Each structure stands twice: as structure tokens, then as C-alpha cells.
Amino acid sequence: MVDKVRAKKALGQNFLTDSGVSQLMVESVDVFNGDRIIEIGSGRGALTQSLASICRSRQAYLTAVEFDVDLIPILKSRITESENIKIINANILNYLDDFKVPENTRLKITGSLPYNITSPLIHKLIKINPRPETCVFLIQKEVAQKICKQAPDSNYLSVFVQTFYKTEILKIVDKNLFSPVPKVDGAIIKLTRKPSDLISRLPWQTGNISHYEKFLHHAFSSPRKMLNKVFTKEDLARYQLDATKRPQDYGSDKYLRIFATDK
User: Quick one: pLDDT at residue 2?
Assistant: First the structure.
């Protein structure tokens, strides 16, 4: 029986066993007519079945991406593929490299993410065009909390993600709701794209996101030290930074405006 396929530790697989958590994630995606939905790590179809049903009823498009080839037969036995419902066996990080959607399309992404790819995946999603309008992920609780930190407790990841997205934790998910049980609890995090005029004016598609990443890495290179140990006196004056503050004392709005002054 294909349902007997076991979770593979090497792939970071922990299957969600609570339908209430799955339903909250599906509802939080906010699927509307014409939306393009990508589900990452479809597994045994805990989210996929509900997503497929909603996409059919609302004339939206769903692409379910699963890396484990052994799980594809399970998905295809539970979900009927059609013109707007597709199941794909692929590494999501590679799949997004060639991903294309029509212009003026609302792209939304959801899924239960292997903990080891959470950060690189979110970085990649921010760089694709169009940038997803909404992301709803089940990730490690500590990572979700880190992404949602605000000044004066900012960090590199929170500033980078919050530059482009409003972040919120919708629910903490007990580790016992997974099989096999992981070592840590999870959390459902929702990222909602910001309609910032400053973001839209900057030429992000010309490689500036990578430059912005390097700028933030520099700013947070010595997170416990005051900014006068990170920036020159000239930069402190030009960026209107308090030399006695630490990198964590400023949030994404401040760092974005600093970066924009050099563009």
C-alpha cells in the first residue's frame, strides 16, 4: 500500500496529523478566483486535498510540489489532476528558478516546510517575480518567532523579511501533532506582501536584493556592538544613525530608507 510510506529523516519529513491545523492554513491563504497557488511539500496530501477543492470551486490554480518521489503515488491517488490542479515531483528550490506566472497574477504559497530549508526558501521567494502576495507556512516555532521580532529586538532575518512582508504568527503547533514527533514545536506564520511605495520604486529586479542582503549582513555583523563599531562616522551622519544604538534597535523601515539613500 502506498499509504505505508514512512517519513524520511534525511528529508526532514514530519507529517501533520491534525486536520484543524491544516484547515487554518488553507483558510489563511485566502484563495480567490484566478489565484495561482503553490503548495510546498505536499507530503500525503493533508493540505492538498482541501486546497484542490477550494481551487476547483473558486477557479484558481494549484501546483502541489513534492520532492519525495515515493509520495507522488499517494498524492495522485487522493487528488484528481486537471487543467488547474497539478502534482509535480521536484525540489522546490530548483523549481522556483524557472517558475513563470502570467503578469497581473496573484501568487500565493503555502506548505509545511522542512526546517532546514526555511530561511533559504523565504529568501528565494522574496527574489522571484512576481513576489508572492501571501505565504502561509508551518515552520519551526523559534524561526517563526525570530522572523516576527520587532525593534529593539530585531535581527537580520526579521529585518530582511519585514522589509517586504507583514509578518504574524497565527498559531503555535504542538510537536505531538506531527508523526514522527519532532524535537521542537512548530508555528503557522503568515507573510502578507507590503504595498510600500519605497519598495516599488527601488529596482529590486536588477540585483539590488542581493546588495540589500549584503548591507544587512554588514549591519548585523556584530549584533551586540554599538553602531559606531559597524559604520564609519561619515555613514552614521549620512544615515542619521545614533552611534550608541545597536543593530537590533532599528527595524525594517529604517534599514530600507538607509539602503534607499544610496540608490
Answer: 42
